[in-house]
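This is your field. Have a critical look at both lines of this record:
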Amino acid sequence: MSRVAFVSYSREDQPRVELVKNRLTQLGFEVWLDENLRGGQAWWDVILDKIRSCEVFVPNVSDASLQSQACAVERDYARALGKPVVPVAIERTHRPRPSDLETLQIVDYTTATDEAAFALVRAMNDHDPDRPLPGPLPARPEPPLSYLNRQMDIVTSRGALTHEQQVGVLLSVRPGLRSGDGDEWLSAWTVLEALDARTDVTREVAEEIARLRAAHAPPEEQPQLRTESSRQEDEIAPRPAAPSIGQPSVTRLRLSTTDLVGAGTALGTGVVLALAVRWAAIVALRLSWEYGVPEWVYRVWEPLGEWPESFFYLLWLLTLGVMV
């Protein structure tokens, strides 16, 4: 019969936690983690029951889990039940570790290598699977983020919600949406989505929901949800005022000092090259008259000396265009 392992983690770490789950499954463990439960008292009761029935409690160690209130409560309850605890580090953490983790040997699973897998299986098998529960049982802890669980119960109730109740839910979820705790943010976001799905939401509340969704949406959803009101909340710099009707739109060209210096250099170089070519032709013709030169040289330079200055200005413009 396979042993049951309860994996405690923060939602932000789910992709890396899947690696740990898959490895434990390969090692013959039945792994449980709350992938589908989404909050409320019923959700918390299931989690506590699974912790009580597991044989090994596996908290994943990361910056997000160390900040998670739910992970801390789960660890405390597992320790109160006397469960074997095998912490698994899935990233290099920068936050200080709590005292209950500092006293334990943490399995390094920051890279999913065979060596890390051997260390994990040794740690998992180094505990008595038949350790009895203490008696009497410790008190069941209150659900973390209980204020949001209460709001979820209100939102999922069958009766119609008054406008005041809907506004109360919005006021309750705002702190969670701004929280640095990923689990608290997810719980607040779930309540907001549940409220948005109701058919009795007033127009004023619906507009506020849209604004909060746009301002606090996960990154992959922000382009679809962003609105003008959310741009104001995110403190994005205001756009220039649009011209009034009948007033032409003006586009201003901004040039840096480097651009101006480069243009001036190209202009001066073009002028010098054009004048140099023309004066070289004139000098060559005069030398040919006084000292005599081969006929082919005269035929090359004579046209240059006689061409009008407009040709050399054209040559200067072409040179300037190439250099710019």
About this structure: The chain has three domains: 3-125, 146-233, 260-323. The two ends are 78 Å apart (CA to CA). Residues 257-291 form the longest helix (35 residues).
